[in-house]
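Q: Two folds, back to back.
A: First:
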Amino acid sequence: MAYLGQPRTLQELLREPPHSLEVQSYAPKEMNGAILNADGFGLAWYVEGHLEPARYRSVLPLWADENLPELAPRLTTGCLLANARSATPGLGMGLANTPPFVRGRWTFSHNGYVRGFRERVMRPLRAALSDAAYRGIRGGTDSEHLFAVFLDAVRDASPEDALQALVDRVRALAPDEESLLSVLVSDGTTIWALRHGIGGPAPSLYRSAEGADVFVASEPLFDGAWEPLPAGSIARFDGELALREVA
């Protein structure tokens, strides 16, 4: 999930909604291929006066972490990305593999997978990365490697074009594999979202706007006017919505 708008506590964003991310970690409604999001969680939030986000991650399920109930009511942000993880088999556990991933001002979270990543995609993808992007990788997930592709592309392109470049790279390296790509990216002032599927249906992703406040989530967090983002689209949220199709 992601949020952009007036400052709210992490408690309001992560734990209080009726179908909050905490609830989705143990009772998701639209999850395919697994039952729970129990393989750790992470959140990154932006604080006024700091370009780079703060981040908190745990290998525990979100519902089992004993620190978050104490921290969440006391931390406030106008921009948040959070992820409750269901690990892709074979890609490993641990903090290094737990999203969201952060580099400089950028925060990145991916819901989905690139099938056959370690067997057929990982090595050629890494070979094409810049030295800086390669050195920044700490874990072994497809998600963090997609972030590295995004970081290389966004140096000379808009975030929308960098997300398109991410899709192009996956399509080129894994044309016959199923790749599910629900991606959220932020720099603290804007949220970008990619919803796309290659060889399979795009993972669910919804948006809800309350005035200037925007929520984006895999499943609606509360009752209201939630709209699914179109499959095969890239969206930008910065007070207004801009949509474009994935080429």
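A: Second:
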Amino acid sequence: MKIINLGQNNSALNNFIAEIRDSSTQKDSMRFRKNLERIGEVFAYEISKVLNYSTKEVHTPLGIAKCNTTDDNIVIASIMRAGLPVHHGMLNIFDKAQNAFIAAYRKYGKDNKFVIHLEYASSPSVGGKVLMLTDTMLATGSSLVLTYNRLCENESPEHTHIICPIASVDGIEYLSKHLPHKKTTLWVGAIDEELTIKAYIVPGLGDAGDLAYGSKL
């Protein structure tokens, strides 16, 4: 699996990452969502550089222009709730993409152990397409792998791009072991070393879904 950490290079992305981490700025949920949306736009632009292109003729009012445009059939998929703002940002760039949504959550038992429940999935066919799977946080990686398996039960995408602004070392290792090695690229904005006993990323940013949309029951 190829790993691309955009946060290693100085760019405006680092400002957005800093703001979603900042506990003071997080008090403004609208700004938190907007920063995630802008992060999604940055990732989408960078991913657009590695897609397939061909030259097409475009008729202008004064003549014909030859333009290189993307040929890939794209599906943007997100894990609700936290992935939705990033999804929105990517859709601003890939405005003709198809869309998929997965509802997944952790159910905790004894000793802070948990299992991932997938309760809802709405997706077009991903066979032979470019799948872009988004979630704000990559902690253990288990929900992303389950989501990938659900979306690809009967068919395989041409390539999968996984977009996670904040990732843990453990989560990256888990994806590397459980996803197709040559057909997967992981895009991150920052990599954190630590997971708590409840598998929260440290320093991380907290619960992205709650920060974006309010506390859940």
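Q: And?
A: The first helix runs from residue 12 to 21.
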